[in-house]
Write a structure and sequence with these properties.
Layout: E1 7-14, H1 18-26, H2 28-35, E2 37-39, E3 48-53, E4 61-70, E5 74-79, E6 96-104, E7 109-116, H3 123-150
Antiparallel strand pairs: 1-7, 2-3, 3-4, 4-5, 5-6, 6-7
Helix pairs in contact: 1-2, 1-3, 2-3
Length: 151
């Protein structure tokens, strides 16, 4: 596996203030709206938030282990990528780390997402998880942009 298959990096510049993008990213109710996941609790550093993906065809249980929250600049959580197969025991897998970086620009906010750790995913599902998340982050960045700009 090459390093490029272990790491996904995407970014988008959103025409909105950092505070507005930050709230959409870290407020679990707002996050749930644009990410299309029904979350059961708030995002709190060191705590776990569970939810269910509500995207048609991708209904699955999701678990977000919130790692760090640095107001208006950095947010991270670990999770098991693409846990679609209900017969698979994901408890034996190391989660990947999703990190979000926010920077103010003259245009608005630069939002970067970085997900790493795919090399620790079970070999039989690694390529599919990487592929689904590569495309998934592109879609999700468009979703948060649309959510923030229209709200």
């Amino acid at each position: 596996m090459t390093n490029t298959e272990n790491l996904i990096e995407r970014q988008i510049e959103i025409k909105a203030p950092v505070a507005k993008v930050w709230k959409a990213l870290t407020d679990s109710r707002q996050f749930g709206q644009w990410f299309k996941v029904d979350l059961h609790s708030e995002f709190v550093a060191g705590k776990t938030t569970k939810g269910k993906n509500t995207s048609k065809g991708f209904e699955m249980e999701m678990v977000f282990h919130v790692k760090e929250i640095k107001p208006q600049s950095y947010f991270s959580y670990s999770w098991i990528p693409f846990p679609m197969d209900q017969s698979f025991d994901y408890s034996q897998e190391e989660p990947t780390l999703a990190e979000f970086f926010l920077e103010q620009t003259t245009y608005g906010t630069l939002l970067k997402v970085k997900e790493s750790g795919f090399n620790q995913i079970t070999a039989s599902r690694r390529a599919e998880a990487y592929k689904m998340h590569s495309g998934g982050w592109e879609a999700q960045l468009k979703n948060i942009e649309k959510f923030v700009v229209e709200k």
